[in-house]
Amino acid sequence: MISEKEINQSSPLAADNPFLPLTYRIISKHRDTEDIVTIGIEPLQDAIAPYKSGQFNMLTAYKVGEIAISISSEPGHRMGMIHTIRDVGAVSHALVSLNVGDIIGVRGPFGTDWQTSEPGDFDYVVVAGGIGLAPLRGAIFELGKKLGGKKNVNLLIGARSPDQMIYSSDLKHLEALGVNVYKTVDIADATWKGSVGVVTELIPKAIFDPKNTKVLICGPEIMIRFTARTLTKAGINPQSILVSLERNMQCGVGLCGHCQLGPYLICRDGPVFPWEPVIKDLLSQKER
Amino acid sequence: MTSIQEAIIKVPMFRDLSKEAVNLMAECAQEVNFEPETQILTEGAIASTFYIIQTGTVSLQIREPQAVPLVVQTINPNSLLGLSWITPPYQWSFDAFTLERVTAIEFHSACVREKLLTHPEHGFSILQSILNVFLERLQATRTRMLDIYNTDRKAIPGD
After folding, report:
1. In CA terms, which of A181, A252, A255, B72 is 20 to 30 Å from A189?
2. How confident is the model over B85-123, as pLDDT tens digits?
């Protein structure tokens, strides 16, 4: 593993140059599931600029590579910044294999956000599928703290199975903030006393005024499509629906083009987009 | 409107039924309660009743001799519990257990079938509504079969 000495972190350009990673130390590590790990990090010297819920960072596993990972902590949280990583490739494997005290590189924050820093006077329906809860975690805490008990804030979570559900320990905190939390899984045995079925089956349980509701969705794109369609049928304006998308982000600043979706570059124009007018159609077309 | 008629039109699929159709169904119904962990349906048993769940949740399960039963689906309030009463051999395919205290409207299957046959002008619309329940569950089942939370799926070749 790379040492602090090996890392040239004294460059005065680092904080201003979007291509130079800043060095951060891992201060906490939690295994959410067999292949998903959440790490907490703090800067060794310079910190990245303040971030908003829904944005992402490029994380560097030194000597291995760099990947885009959503920021999962609430903006301004005193316990540092957290990222939740699924072990799917060389870089993510290197990142989840690191331990408390190890050093990583961080570039960011990049992209658009959930617009929850000023949530307005709306009800909210937040729908997360699988690890799609990670980019929503900061937003749902913001909504709980700002609107909990005053407006209806609903969190609907779908997962493959009970053991694949992340942030289980956060859900009680969110309920205490006044968030209505509903969970469902695709596969379970009778020891699971919760709901079994697709996440859209939770929508009738959520309490909201369709004419005054904003929606945030993140998860597999098939789930995004079905959920947006069902919520639109329930009377929600499709332009009040925001979705977060994922592609192969590499530069983070809209230069390399790896994350193109139709006319958009996800890293620059997203990852958070309004469902209508454009994303709705793009998600049902084969990419060229 | 009686509480039974109100319960029927609370089911999204039955919302557009005519008053006459709702009355026909209500004539075959009564209100019932179940304590938590009560078995309502038993695999293989005659489907002599079916239910609209009003409050509480019911777990539809399939059992194996040497394993914990698997949950097929949970049935939420304002949903229909039991579909096998419509066509022969009128036998349940799964077990159903309450997860908490449940209030429901219980329908007598033979009575409803008789109404559908003898009042075809309303029977067809009732069957269409029930067909919508089948369709919704079929689509949900297909979506679950896609295993969309599985991250091992392949990208488009060439990407």
Report:
1. A181
2. 999 999 999 999 999 999 999 999 999 999 999 999 999
DSSP classification of residue A121: S
Measure the CA–CA gap between A288 and B3, rounded to whole angstroms: 56
Sequence-ordered alpha helix ranges (H) in A101-214 = 137-147, 168-176
Q: Are A137 and A73 in contact (CB under 8 A)?
A: yes
Residue A228's nearest CA partner among A282, A185, A175 is A282
pLDDT tens-digit series, residues A58-77:
999 999 999 999 999 999 87
Q: Which residues contact A106 (CB under 8 A, 6 or more apart)?
A: A21, A22, A23, A24, A41, A43, A48, A57, A58, A59, A60
Written as one string, the DSSP assignment of A221-241 is: HHHHHHHHHHHHHTT--GGGE
Nearest Cβ partner for A189 among B71, B78, B149 = B71
Nearest to A141 by CA among A30, A221, A216: A216
CA distance A2 to chain B (A): 30
